[in-house]
Design brief:
globular; single chain; alpha/beta; TIM Barrel; 309 residues; 8-stranded parallel beta sheet
């Protein structure tokens, strides 16, 4: 596909006019109930370890250097060597130019390597550039691609263009998994979030993801619930399980547990795995480790004992 074009069968493009409207009051009430659940002792430890195993440990800054990326990879490998029985994080997520550095640093470890692509975070580039960006990331060794949708096109109602672009990027991914970032903070309403979720899944997303982390608000429980409900309905319709990744602003262990409660009560046990749920985060791991240390010793360890990245 030298010109980046991909011709989509009309039957594959979902009728977004038929997507159910979101009951915003109902969503708010459900989220409030999830936040009031209390998890204690052994169940809390299990939830914390599960959340840790679902983290995409991320650095996506203009000031990223090979040294910083290697340090992040060391953190992924050695979360806290004095604590036994810890899982490793799901993946490390970096810019395409840092894939080679991260791949070498993670060699021999069962930790995924994710890369953002498609003119992240704005998505403002020609499709040919986005496709080349994706192919380069895969060729460099990325296992997962986190792409951004063209929010401007979506907000103008150019759904076919957005659908076609996601499908083309999915094809360019080859064997790599595709996470489609909706950038929900720019979509404006939960109804648009729901429609964008449906569109992305029908176009070939393996995961749908809330945010780049560069726009506020980023991940919220309300947005995530709407996306989880869209995933549930897509599964009922197609039998296909799509993953979910809230990203941006989730930095505390308590928040992570609330998200897991919501995940379990919306999608059930089958989704309680890093294969189908991720947290996009940079500092969440530290707070989870501090909470696990408290569960073991009864006291918090100083954050001086943890890396700042």
């Amino acid at each position: 596909m030298s010109d980046g074009a991909l011709h989509i069968e009309p039957s594959r493009l979902p009728d977004l006019d038929r997507v159910p409207r979101v009951d915003e009051v109902g969503v708010g009430e459900r989220v409030s109930r999830f936040c009031k659940r209390s998890i204690k002792k052994d169940s809390k430890v299990q939830a914390l370890k599960l959340a840790l195993s679902m983290i995409d440990l991320t650095t996506l800054e203009g000031q990223d250097t090979p040294g910083k990326v290697r340090q992040l990879c060391q953190k992924a490998i050695h979360l806290h060597d004095s604590m036994e029985g810890l899982p490793h994080v799901a993946a490390v997520c970096v810019y395409p130019t840092m894939i080679g550095v991260a791949k070498k640093a993670l060699e021999g470890y069962d930790i995924g390597l994710a890369s953002v692509a498609t003119a992240f975070p704005s998505g403002q580039a020609p499709r040919s550039v986005k496709l080349e960006d994706t192919r380069m990331a895969v060729a460099e060794g990325a296992d997962e691609i986190d792409m951004v949708i063209s929010r401007g096109a979506f907000l103008q109602g150019e759904y076919g263009l957005v659908f076609d672009e996601i499908a083309a990027i999915k094809e360019a991914c080859g064997e790599a998994h595709l996470k489609v970032i909706l950038e929900t903070g720019e979509l404006g309403t939960l109804d648009r979030v729901r429609r964008a979720s449906v569109l992305a899944m029908h176009a070939g997303a393996d995961f749908i993801k809330t945010s780049t982390g560069k726009i506020q608000p980023a991940a919220t429980m309300e947005v995530t619930l709407v996306m989880l409900q869209a995933i549930r309905d897509f599964y009922y319709e197609t039998g296909q399980r799509i993953g979910m990744k809230p990203a941006g602003g989730i930095s505390k262990a308590k928040q992570a547990i609330q998200y897991l409660v919501m995940l379990h009560e919306t999608l059930g046990n089958d989704w309680m795995t890093p294969d189908l749920f991720r947290f996009g985060a940079s500092s969440l791991a530290n707070d989870i480790l501090m909470q696990l240390q408290k569960q073991q010793t009864g006291v918090y360890q100083s954050d001086d004992y943890f890396s700042k990245d």
